[in-house]
C-alpha cells in the first residue's frame, strides 16, 4: 500500500469509528421507540412487530402539541432577539475601533466561559422577585443573554473575515455604517448568520435545566420537560420516552436539513477564518 | 474643478509613522500619480484623503473645504480599489447604482446615470451579471464605472491595474487616462509601477518611507531626479550608480574610481560624488568621440526584448551598469566587452546625502 493509500485508509477508519460512535445512540433510541408503550427492555432488542403506535402514545400522553408550541415560541423569540442583537454587536467589535472595545468584548465572552449551572440559582431568585417565573420571559431572556455571548463572538469572527475593502468601498460610496452593515455585509454573511441561527435554535430548543427551574405550571412547559412525563417513581417507560425524545429532536433535524448547505459553509468559514 | 491639498500631514500607527509630514498640492483637474515602493505610505496617504484613516497631524483640503474631520461619505470622492471591492451579491447595475442610491438620488436619475456610465465603459450588456460572472478586466471596468457614475469631486485610485494581465493593463492605462481627460476630474492615482506613473500622470509624486521625495512632471523627474532614490526608482532598467573621486581640471572635473573615468562640466563638486548613468547612455564601444571610454566590462546578463536589448555589465568589483542596445544584439554571458558612456549625460549626487548636485553633465 502506498503512503497516500495508507493515509486514506487510516482517515476512513477514524471517520468510520466516529460515525459509529455518533450514530449508535440514535439507532438505539429509534429501536427502543419502535417497541410498544410500556414494554420492558433489558438492552438493545429488535421489536417483534414494527409499530409507530408508541409515537402517537407519547405525543398524546406527554401533551406534546402544547409543549412543542411553547418551545417553538421560546426558540423563535431567542433566535430573533439574538440575531438582531448579535449582528450589530459583532459588526461593531469586528470592524470598528472604539475605546474599551477589548475589555467589553471579554466581558461578553464571560457568558461562554462561566458554567450556566452556577448562574441558575441567582437567576431564579432574580426572576422570582421580578415576578417573571412561570412566564416565557423566564426562558427567553436568560437564553438570549447566553446566546449573545456566542453570537457576538461568531459574528465578530465573520465580520473580521470579510475583506475590509468592501466596507471601505461602501463608505466612500456614501453609505452610513448602518447601510454598510445591512446592504453590503449582512447579505454576504448569510451562511454565517444561518449557522448561528441553527446553533442558537438547537441550544434553546434542547434547554432542559432552565425550564425545569423557572417553569412549574403546565402552560409554559417546553418540549424537553415533556420527557419527564414518562418517568415514574417505579421506573421509566423506555419505549415511550425514546419515542418522545425522537419527537423532540425532529424540529431541530428539520431546521438543520433546511439550512444544511449554508450551515456547512458557515461552519467551514468559521473554522478557517475564526 | 477641485483642487486637493495635503499640508504637513502625519499618520502614525502606534510607533510606526506611515506618512511623515506630507505636503502636496494637486491642481483642479490634474492627474497626479503617487508612486513609490511597497510600504512607502502612498496608499495610506490615499486612505487619509478618502477618510478611511484618521489624520494624526496636519490638514487635508478638497476644494476650499478642510476634510480631515469628515467621514468618507461627506467628502464626495470616489475610490477604485486594488481588488475592485465589488459587492459580490449585487448585479453590475446595483453595484453602479449603490453610490447614487446611498445619496438618495431619484430612481429615474439613477437609472439614467448608470446606463450612461455603463455605455461609456462598454458594460451595457453586463448589467444583470454578478461580479463572479465577469472577467478581471470587466470587473475593473465596473469598479471604474462605480467611481464615474457619481460625478465626484475627485477620483482616488489605489493600484487599480495591478491585478490585470500585461496587455489588459496597457489598454486600461490608456482608458483611465482618457476617461480622466474627458471628465476633467482631479485624480490621485497610487501605484508602485513606475511605467504607469510615467505614462499616466500630469505630475508624479515619489514617496519613500512616508516622506515625499519629489513632485514634478514625469519627464523632469526622469531627467532631473532630486536624489539617488528617485533616480534609481524612476526608469527601467534602473539607473546605475558608481562612486567617484572628483578632481578639478580647469573649468571641468575629472571623476575617477579606478575602473571608469569621466569628465564632467560642473561649477563645484565635493571630493566624493555618486554618478548615475542611465542604460540608454551606456553602449558598446564604437570609437565615437561623443563617448567617454573605452572601459572593460564583462556581460553578466542579457535581456533581449526584440526592439532593444539590455546588457548587464560588470566593470570590476562593485561597479555594475546596464547598457541599452538597439534591436536584438547577440552577446554571451561572461563575454568581455568594451563599452563607453555618452558624454554629458551623467547625473551627480552627493555621496553622503544622496541629494542631486548636477544633471546631464
What is the C-alpha radius of gyration of chain B, as a whole number of Å? 24 Å
Q: Span between N and C termini of chain B? A: 40 Å
Widest sheet of chain B: strand order? 6-7-8-3-9-10
| First and last CA, distance of chain A | 37 Å
- Average per-residue pLDDT of chain B, rounded, comes to 90
Helix count of chain B?
A: 8
- H/E series of chain A: HHHHHHHHHHHEEH
Strand order, largest beta sheet of chain A: 1-2
From N to C, what is the helix and strand string of chain B? EEEHEEEHHHEHEHEEHHEEEEEEEEEEE
**Principal-axis shape of chain B:** elongated
Biggest β-sheet of chain B: count, sense, barrel? 6 strands, mixed
Q: Got a strand count of chain A?
A: 2
List the SSEs and their pairings.
The complex is a heterodimer of chains A (274) and B (361).
Chain A: H1 3-33, H2 53-62, H3 64-95, H4 101-113, H5 116-129, H6 137-161, H7 164-172, H8 177-188, H9 190-206, H10 209-214, H11 223-226, E1 231-232, E2 235-236, H12 238-273
Antiparallel strand pairs in A: 1-2
Helix pairs in contact in A: 1-12, 2-12, 3-6, 3-9, 4-6, 6-9, 7-8, 9-12
Chain B: E1 4-13, E2 16-26, E3 31-35, H1 42-50, E4 57-62, E5 65-66, E6 77-80, H2 92-102, H3 107-120, H4 136-148, E7 154-158, H5 166-183, E8 186-191, H6 194-200, E9 203-208, E10 211-216, H7 218-223, H8 228-233, E11 240-249, E12 252-256, E13 261-265, E14 272-277, E15 282-284, E16 291-304, E17 308-314, E18 320-326, E19 336-342, E20 347-350, E21 356-358
Parallel strand pairs in B: 3-8, 3-9, 6-7, 7-8
Antiparallel strand pairs in B: 1-2, 1-4, 4-5, 9-10, 11-12, 11-14, 12-13, 14-20, 15-19, 16-17, 16-19, 17-18, 20-21
Helix pairs in contact in B: 2-3, 2-4
Amino acid at each position: 500500500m502506498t503512503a497516500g493509500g495508507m493515509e486514506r485508509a487510516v482517515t476512513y477508519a477514524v471517520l468510520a469509528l466516529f460515525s459509529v460512535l455518533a450514530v449508535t445512540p440514535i439507532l438505539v433510541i429509534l429501536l427502543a421507540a419502535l417497541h410498544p408503550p410500556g414494554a420492558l427492555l433489558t438492552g438493545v432488542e429488535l421489536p417483534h412487530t414494527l409499530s409507530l403506535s408508541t409515537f402517537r402514545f407519547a405525543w398524546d400522553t406527554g401533551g406534546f402539541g402544547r409543549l412543542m408550541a411553547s418551545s417553538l415560541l421560546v426558540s423563535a423569540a431567542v433566535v430573533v432577539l439574538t440575531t438582531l442583537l448579535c449582528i450589530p454587536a459583532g459588526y461593531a467589535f469586528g470592524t470598528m475601533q472604539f475605546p474599551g472595545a477589548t475589555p467589553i468584548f471579554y466581558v461578553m465572552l464571560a457568558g461562554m466561559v462561566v458554567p450556566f449551572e452556577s448562574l441558575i440559582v441567582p437567576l431564579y431568585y432574580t426572576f422570582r422577585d421580578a415576578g417573571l417565573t412561570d412566564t416565557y420571559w423566564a426562558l427567553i431572556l436568560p437564553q438570549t443573554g447566553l446566546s449573545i455571548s456566542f453570537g457576538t463572538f461568531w459574528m465578530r469572527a465573520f465580520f473580521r473575515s470579510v475583506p475590509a475593502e468592501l466596507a471601505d468601498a461602501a463608505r466612500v460610496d456614501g453609505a452610513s455604517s448602518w447601510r454598510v452593515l445591512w446592504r453590503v455585509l449582512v447579505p454576504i454573511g448569510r451562511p454565517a448568520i444561518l449557522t448561528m441561527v441553527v446553533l442558537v435554535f438547537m441550544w434553546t430548543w434542547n434547554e432542559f435545566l432552565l425550564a425545569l427551574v423557572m417553569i412549574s405550571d403546565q402552560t409554559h412547559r417546553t418540549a424537553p420537560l415533556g420527557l419527564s412525563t414518562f418517568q415514574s417513581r417505579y421506573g421509566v417507560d423506555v419505549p415511550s420516552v425514546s419515542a418522545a425524545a425522537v419527537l423532540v429532536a425532529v424540529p431541530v433535524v428539520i431546521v438543520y436539513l433546511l439550512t444544511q448547505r449554508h450551515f456547512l459553509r458557515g461552519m467551514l468559514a468559521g473554522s478557517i477564518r475564526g | 474643478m477641485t483642487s486637493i491639498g495635503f499640508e504637513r500631514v502625519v499618520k502614525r500607527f502606534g510607533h510606526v509613522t506611515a506618512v511623515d509630514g506630507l505636503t502636496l498640492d494637486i491642481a483642479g483637474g490634474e492627474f497626479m500619480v503617487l508612486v513609490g515602493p511597497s510600504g512607502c505610505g502612498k496608499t495610506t496617504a490615499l486612505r487619509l484623503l478618502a477618510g478611511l484613516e484618521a489624520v494624526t497631524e496636519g490638514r487635508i483640503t478638497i476644494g476650499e473645504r478642510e476634510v480631515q474631520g469628515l467621514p468618507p461619505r461627506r467628502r464626495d470622492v470616489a475610490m477604485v480599489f486594488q481588488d475592485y471591492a465589488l459587492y459580490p451579491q449585487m448585479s453590475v447595475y446595483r453595484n453602479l447604482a449603490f453610490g447614487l442610491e446611498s445619496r438618495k438620488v431619484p430612481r429615474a436619475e439613477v437609472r439614467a446615470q448608470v446606463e450612461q456610465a455603463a455605455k461609456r465603459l462598454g458594460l451595457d450588456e453586463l448589467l444583470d451579471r454578478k461580479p463572479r460572472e465577469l472577467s478581471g478586466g470587466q470587473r475593473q471596468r465596473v469598479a471604474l464605472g462605480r467611481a464615474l457614475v457619481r460625478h465626484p469631486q475627485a477620483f482616488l485610485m489605489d493600484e487599480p491595474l495591478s491585478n490585470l494581465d500585461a496587455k489588459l493593463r496597457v489598454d486600461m492605462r490608456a482608458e483611465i487616462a482618457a476617461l480622466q481627460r474627458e471628465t476633467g476630474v482631479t485624480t490621485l492615482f497610487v501605484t508602485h509601477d513606475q511605467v504607469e506613473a510615467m505614462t499616466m500622470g500630469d505630475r508624479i509624486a515619489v514617496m519613500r518611507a512616508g516622506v515625499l521625495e519629489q513632485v514634478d512632471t514625469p519627464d523632469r523627474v526622469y531627467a532631473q531626479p532630486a536624489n539617488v532614490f528617485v533616480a534609481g526608482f524612476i526608469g527601467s532598467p534602473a539607473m546605475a550608480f558608481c562612486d567617484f573621486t572628483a578632481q578639478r581640471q580647469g573649468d571641468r572635473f575629472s571623476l575617477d574610481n579606478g575602473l571608469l573615468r569621466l569628465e564632467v562640466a560642473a561649477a563645484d563638486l565635493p571630493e566624493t560624488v555618486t554618478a548615475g548613468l542611465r542604460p540608454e547612455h551606456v553602449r558598446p564601444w564604437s570609437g565615437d568621440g561623443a563617448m567617454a571610454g573605452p572601459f572593460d566590462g564583462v556581460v553578466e546578463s542579457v535581456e533581449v526584448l526584440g526592439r532593444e536589448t539590455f546588457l548587464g555589465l560588470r566593470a570590476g568589483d562593485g561597479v555594475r551598469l546596464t547598457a541599452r542596445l538597439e534591436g536584438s544584439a547577440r552577446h554571451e554571458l561572461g563575454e568581455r566587452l568594451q563599452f563607453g558612456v555618452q558624454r554629458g549625460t551623467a547625473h551627480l549626487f552627493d555621496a553622503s546625502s544622496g541629494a542631486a548636485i548636477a544633471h546631464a553633465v
